[in-house]
Design brief:
The protein has a two-stranded antiparallel sheet with strand order 1-2. The chain is mainly alpha-helical and 243 residues long. It has ten helices and two strands, in the order ααααααββαααα. The protein is globular and about 65 Å long.
Length: 243
């Protein structure tokens, strides 16, 4: 596999990450901008910093994307390019029409679809459900447990959690003065928005790390290739927490 193909896939992955930025980052700054607690420039700077910190804080999502969703034997640079382009197109469509959507699920769907096509419509290319032993405990992994179940349960948990927290706040601050409440929660929004940016980086920004790592695995399985520069290998290992 030539070095040019590897860098082409990395470039497309970075384009996906850029689009993911203006598609999803608004989620974490919409409240503080809408309530005029922060200016748009301040909010964007905060979101950029917290997303970067979150992306460097762990690599669990990157590991899931790179090794827990599809069979590695069906992965090639073409598959990764198709997966990324599928995610990019869907992100742009939903952004244009102002539809809320998940870039993570768009990328996972693109990856699974491209892998199935690469396997000539063999749906076993997708790792649906598999039992593994981690730290002496049996855990279930695969698309069903890592993607489908959280996709259904997370909105429900968010709905119930938001309802309970709002009820608790109404109870605690029922006798507080409106001026105090406005001032207190105006500042609290900054903390919540910062944490949401951090969590977004921790979860979403690592998708591209997983794709790049999957590319390197596919390049290794492909056999002889142009040697990667030392700085590229070091940067990839550092991004995956292996350096």
């Amino acid at each position: 596999m030539s070095l040019g193909i590897i860098f082409l896939v990395i470039f497309i992955a970075l384009v996906f990450e850029y689009i993911n930025g203006f598609h999803d980052t608004a989620n974490s700054i919409a409240t503080v901008v809408g309530t005029k607690v922060m200016t748009p420039r301040q909010a964007i700077a905060m979101a950029a910093a917290t997303n970067l910190i979150g992306a460097l804080a762990g690599h669990a999502v990157a590991k899931t994307v790179s090794s827990g969703l599809v069979d590695a034997q069906f992965i090639s640079p073409m598959v990764l390019v198709c997966a990324l382009l599928g995610g990019i197109v869907w992100d742009l469509i939903t952004w244009w029409f102002g539809l809320p959507s998940s870039s993570t699920h768009a990328l996972v769907g693109g990856l699974c679809g491209a892998a199935v096509a690469s396997a000539h419509d063999n749906w076993h290319a997708i790792i649906w459900s598999v039992k593994k032993v981690k730290d002496g405990k049996e855990v279930m992994e695969g698309v069903l447990h890592k993607v489908v179940v959280p996709m259904i349960t997370s909105p429900i948990i968010g709905l119930v959690g938001g309802f309970l927290f709002m009820g608790l706040l109404y109870f605690v601050f029922q006798k507080a003065r409106p001026r105090f409440v406005s001032k207190f929660f105006g500042k609290a929004q900054i903390l919540s928005a910062s944490y949401m940016g951090f969590a977004h980086g921790l979860a979403d920004a690592q998708k591209t790390m997983g794709i790049i790592w999957m590319l390197l695995i596919a390049a290794d399985l492909a056999g002889p290739k142009d040697p990667l520069p030392f700085w590229v290998v070091l940067a990839c290992q550092t991004a995956m927490g292996l350096g």
